[in-house]
Design goal:
A ten-stranded mixed beta sheet has the order 14-13-12-11-7-10-9-8-15-16. Strands 3-2-1-4-5-6 form a six-stranded parallel beta sheet, sandwiched between helices. The longest helix has 20 residues, at 432-451. Helix 1 runs antiparallel to helix 2, helix 6 (128-137) runs parallel beside helix 7 (155-165) and helix 8 crosses helix 11. 36% of the residues lie in helices and 20% in strands. Strand 4, helix 6 (128-137) and strand 5 (141-145) form a beta-alpha-beta unit. It folds into two domains: 3-173, 3-Layer(aba) Sandwich (Rossmann fold); 177-234 and 242-356 and 394-409 and 430-465, 2-Layer Sandwich (Dihydrodipicolinate Reductase, domain 2), CATH 3.30.360. By secondary structure, the protein is of the alpha/beta class. It has helices at 3-19, 27-44, 62-71, 87-97, 107-111, 128-137, 155-165, 179-189, 227-230, 241-245, 256-273, 373-386, 410-424, 432-451; strands at residues 53-58, 77-83, 103-104, 118-121, 141-145, 169-172, 196-204, 280-286, 299-306, 315-322, 330-337, 340-345, 348-353, 400-403, 455-458, 463-465.
Length: 466
């Protein structure tokens, strides 16, 4: 390791220390430091030509662009080809990465290339399961954007295909790799907020682009988008540029706010709590503002009941997305325990405590003042005899304020974990089973919304229950 790399790594660790990642004591602090240092060492490592991973991108839209740019920051990763149905994006790929870059509109041509080890799959949701399975059959590792599948019925097939292939599948909900999630997981396990009983997660927006009204290209047509391929296997659908470029707004191609945003919130909850999923799911919402032809709601709330397991007591998860929020938008998740609240917001987390005293209350708004005076005096004497003054005080703990260092990227950590898995064969943080267990409850929210019913889910066996 170069001296500059060593200094850079130590500086990053010092930043972590000063921002609060090491506030916990003993083994907890040591574990956090070791994991943080391990991540930085991976960025510094040099790779031989035999260790290089060559990737192809299928779906070069907004997320495809961001995924590729991040993946190429991981040492030893190279771009070998790009596939997209829209000609303008292939032209853009050559502008960005060179005129000799291999491009195609047929993803099977990309999968047939021997010089490609892995693919980044960032198409519309309705192609995820099919392309993932085709890629695994061709011996490619797969980074698939969330949600892993378009329909719950596709999930087990992808999980089984991943297992049979022996290849790495990583699903793209990057917050599961964040050091914020790591810190939250440690604090929850250590009992920092007591026993968890509720998680409340909000991801609100207030902008046209945030509501998926993207700028259309001026040359959109059935030919430039290869429309017939896009709708292959579906009932005949007339060309509609919105359904190609704004596909998240349509059930035939996307999964709405549940598949795009609920899945992030559920993924984060699962990695922090260690849960596999809820047992009962219900959602409600409406199409409130963005009446642009979309057939999914722009305001939705999901309520999920998580059963008791060996790792934790039962808790309730509530999810909220509002695409016309007068707050201006927010992204916050609160873990509420019986001794405090842990709030994840932006690039960090805070913990504030409220701990009950051992002694129950007496006086004030207690009902005792409504009883006869002699009885009040007798009850007070009994209370004073049973509960010493110390037991009547609320215990206190220091609050926690943890922020990630400037420039930190959980997206980069997520891709680093993916490529580490390819090189070592070790399990990744969000494999196909994890990805499906996050996607299925999200998709069940759509099912609940449109059918107006509670959906029952077997998270262990990844199956719907009657």
């Amino acid at each position: 390791m170069s001296n500059d790399s060593y200094k850079s790594r130590r500086k990053f660790l010092q930043q972590l220390s000063t921002t609060g990642v090491f506030l916990a004591s003993g083994k907890l602090a040591l574990a956090a430091e070791e994991k943080a240092e391990e991540r930085i060492i991976r960025y510094d490592r040099k790779f031989s030509s035999n260790d290089k991973v060559r990737v192809g991108v299928i779906g070069f839209g907004i997320q495809g662009h961001m995924d590729l740019a991040t993946a190429l920051k991981v040492p030893g990763v190279e771009l070998a080809g790009v596939c997209d149905l829209y000609t303008g994006r292939l032209e853009n790929a050559k502008e960005l990465y060179g005129k000799d870059l291999f491009t195609t509109r047929n993803y099977l041509e990309l999968l047939d290339r021997k010089d490609i080890d892995a693919i980044i799959l960032a198409t519309s949701d309705h192609w995820h399961a099919r392309i993932t399975k085709d890629a695994l059959k061709k011996g490619k590792h797969v980074y698939c954007e969330k949600p892993m599948v378009h329909k719950i019925s596709e999930g087990l097939g992808v999980v089984e295909a991943a297992k049979a292939s022996g290849k790495i599948v990583q699903v793209g909900s990057q917050r599961v790799s964040s050091i914020v999630s790591l810190k939250a997981q440690e604090l929850l396990k250590s009992g920092e907020i007591g026993k968890l009983n509720m998680v409340n997660s909000v991801n609100d927006r207030q902008s046209a682009i945030g509501a998926w009204e993207y700028t259309m290209p001026s040359d959109a047509s059935p030919e430039t988008t290869l429309w017939n391929k896009y709708v292959e296997g579906m009932n005949k659908i007339p060309f509609d540029p919105k359904k190609f470029f704004w596909w998240r707004n349509y059930r035939d191609f996307g999964t709405g706010v549940a598949g795009d945003l609920f899945v992030h919130l559920i993924s984060g909850t699962h990695v922090i709590t260690g849960s596999k999923g809820p047992s009962r799911i219900f959602s409600s919402g409406q199409l409130s503002y963005w009446k642009d032809g979309r057939d999914v709601p722009d305001v939705m709330t999901g309520i999920m009941e998580y059963p008791q397991t060996d790792g934790h007591p039962p808790f309730q998860l509530t999810l909220q997305v509002n695409f016309i929020s007068g707050t201006g938008g927010s992204d916050v998740t609160r873990f509420v325990g019986d001794e405090g609240i842990m709030e994840i917001r932006g690039g960090g987390l805070t913990v504030k405590h409220s701990i009950l005293p051992k002694a129950p209350g007496f006086g004030g708004y207690d009902a005792v003042f409504t009883y006869p005076k002699s009885m009040q005096e007798s009850l007070k004497a009994s209370y004073d005899q049973k509960w010493p003054e110390e037991d009547r005080k609320r215990p206190t703990k220091p609050d926690i304020d943890f922020k990630v260092p400037q420039g930190y990227s959980d997206h980069l950590d997520h891709f680093t974990n993916f490529f580490d898995g390819i090189r070592s064969g070790k399990l990744v943080v969000e494999d196909a089973a994890f990805g499906f267990r996050a996607a299925a409850p999200s998709l069940a929210c759509n099912e609940s919304y449109f059918s107006r019913k509670i959906v029952n889910w077997d998270a262990e066996n990844m199956k719907l229950k009657a």
